[in-house]
Amino acid sequence: MLREKRRFIHMGKRTVVFVLIIALLQTAWVFPARAAGSYRAHGDVDGNGKTEAADARLALRASVGLETLDSTARLAAEVTGDDRLEAADARLILRAAVDLESVPLLHRFTQTDPANKNGKPERHYICDCCGFDAQPAPASLPVAQAEQATAVCKKYGAVSAQAAVIKNGVVTNCFVYGKADKSTGRAANEDTKYRIASLSKLIVCLVFLCLQDRGLVHENDDISDYFGYKCRNPRYPGVVITPSMLMSHTASFVNVGKRMLEDGDLASYGFYLNVKPGTQYNYSDIGIMVLACLCERASGKYLNQLAKEYLFDPLGIDASFLASELRDTSNLGVLYGEEGGWNVSQQLGMASKPLGRSLNLAMGNLTISAKDYARIIALLLNDGKTPSGKAVLSANAVSAVKKQRTSMPKYGVGYGTQIETTVIKGKTVYVHTGSAYGMYSTYVFCPADQCGVVVLTSGCARRLEPESEVYYVCLELIRTVYPG
């Protein structure tokens, strides 16, 4: 009986390998052409034109219908011990099934949106292996604009800076300035990744909204349901606190560091202002930390896993709430500034907390490049879709982010964003800023004209423009490179 079972499992394993090889060979036969120039395969993280072992996860998921494999094949192939063949198992299976270094760039040329705003057809390459929208790498800024942006960086003493430009819903240009690491002389480039401070908060909100789309949470739930005890502002014990309040900073939390939240519970007087929850905007790191913990409790997965599954992997970008879990850890930007800085060793040394307690990551620890963050912002300009039409966010999630929840502080607040009218004169835009350890960052996007800019800077003078409350260096860079 045992021998027969082993023989059956072995046959299942051979079936997985055979199906995978056939799928890859069919794809290579139908679309053998390699993409030219800056186009590259989904997951080709080092840009060497080859799909290697480190790139395998999504390639396998696309090549073989993982969820449809029979139970015997799953048991034969899964390596995590949970009786399911998941993306985490893909690397070893794909390496066993095919000579990875021989897989060509499988791109099919397509044309989308022939009637776009500038009247010219847009062209994209779609990876036939995984369906990823292989947008061209952003071009450098025009010389005159680049010179102006460089002058801004010098004016405010920036050690390094990145600015990614979104036009017509597509990331079109990228500006880079300075040194990623002064001690080694390593120059910053468009793929340098930075700890972006409070711009992380929007991504946590998007993770929550992805869970809501899957029926695991709801923005109007009582957060007590996820924490196992009554979470109330003690001064207003009859008022339910909801995830919507957490995402719009109206939950009446004080703005204090994570230590307090680790040492207490959400029924403590020390967490709250004497304000009725849901009635007043009060920016608070605690709200986003609580939201991240709620997401982990509802899903049984870490915040970083959720962000990768729902956002980073579908977009083919290398980003992480833990720098040590990046695919490429060799291109981190050191932070320099009046707040003490943050070196590479410190970034790589950040550790995850137990499941349901990702307090030290959610409020500001996302590590990403401006170019890749701009691709996430572009989803909010395209109803949650990439330029090729691939849905990453639902239209409901995009609408939830942009919906005005309160008219405070000045113009309005959505989820993980604020509504502004002074950053770009004559335009109503969505904006958020970040600052920590010398990082000054800002995103801005305008749904009306499908444009936006993401700016990350390090080592600049700490000067805040009072009208918009955006750091001067970010504000001037945005105004310099914003389309039109």
Kindly describe this structure:
- The model is unreliable at 16-47, 57-80, 94-125 and 127-131 (pLDDT under 50).
- Strands 4, 5, 6, 7, 10, 11, 12 and 13 form an 8-stranded mixed beta sheet that branches.
- 34% of the residues lie in helices and 15% in strands.
- By secondary structure, the protein is α+β, with helices and mostly antiparallel strands.
- It folds into 3 domains: 2-109, no CATH class; 139-199 and 305-354 and 364-481, DD-peptidase/beta-lactamase superfamily (Beta-lactamase, 3-Layer(aba) Sandwich), CATH 3.40.710; 215-297, no CATH class.
- 50% of the residues are buried.
- It contains 16 helices and 15 strands.
- The radius of gyration is 23 Å and the shape is globular.
CATH architecture of the largest domain: 3-Layer(aba) Sandwich
- Write the CATH fold name of the largest domain: Beta-lactamase
Number of domains: 3
Radius of gyration: 23 Å
Work out the strand percent.
15-25%
Secondary structure: number of strands: 15
What is the helical fraction, as a range of percent? 25-40%
| Low-pLDDT sequence parts | 16-47, 57-80, 94-125, 127-131
